[in-house]
Amino acid sequence: MSATATPSAVRRASAARVVDAVKVYGAGDTEVRALDGISVDFPAGRFTAVMGPSGSGKSTLMHCAAGLDTLTSGSASIGGTELSALDDRSLTLLRRERVGFVFQAFNLLPTLTVAENITLPLDLAGVPGDRDWISALVDTVGLYDRLHHRPSELSGGQQQRVAVARAFAGRPDIVFADEPTGNLDSRSGEEVLQLLGDAAHRTDRTVVMVTHDPVAAAHADEVIFLADGRLVDHLQDPTAERVLERLKAFDTGGGRTT
């Protein structure tokens, strides 16, 4: 594999991109090179999974691509906006207006209802939400009968569906999901993964998901694999079996590409 875009990224516009991305923590004997020259596009309107063993750099890649952390060298951009060119205020505004997040922890406010949690980022920004858009999201996540409930009255899967709706409420260009099914049972996790894929394809938004689970990755349109801070492979139209085969190849030292 080349160090540039995946084949689907060549055909589609890029929702986010990192080029020659290097992220170093510490110095001297304690230096850790979390990202080591990665270049990758995340195509618009696609669901991409990022996989790799612990310490491979997958969460660091997500954080830097999303503007939650800065690169040591190289560049990261969302759409055509180079993140390093933005001051703190502009970067905060970009994340608020163009990026959504879903995390393993649901991060819902317990004192707010489902409806209030979904619109919370918009309310904090003082931005009126698109009522038709939010209504369609609520329909997609299947929570019309739970809008006036509080998180404690919901199952884990329902809480994560609220978090997904919240991530899409501001009509972001791209949503980053970090192990979104890590706290869910298999059935609830399956529902959330299906929801992420449906949201990406129905709304033509981009979803980038970090996961360690081959079954979760199989819901994506493509999977990229990291090892030792480098991009080592990618897989189009994945199945859980094919993803697991690739991961086993890396564990045995085979299957690595440059």
| Low-confidence runs | 1-10
Strand content: 25-35%
User: What is the top-level CATH class?
Assistant: Alpha Beta
Shape: globular
Structural class: alpha/beta
Order of strands side by side in the largest beta sheet? 6-7-8-3-9-10
In the CATH classification, which architecture applies?
Answer: 3-Layer(aba) Sandwich
Provide structural commentary.
Helix 6 packs parallel to helix 7. The strands form 2 sheets. The protein has a 6-stranded mixed β-sheet with strand order 6-7-8-3-9-10, with helices on both faces. It is built from 9 helices and 10 strands. Strand 9 (222-227) and strand 10 form a beta hairpin. Residues 1-10 have low confidence and may be disordered. The longest helix has 18 residues, at 186-203. It has a single domain, classed as Rossmann fold (3-Layer(aba) Sandwich). The protein is of the alpha/beta class.
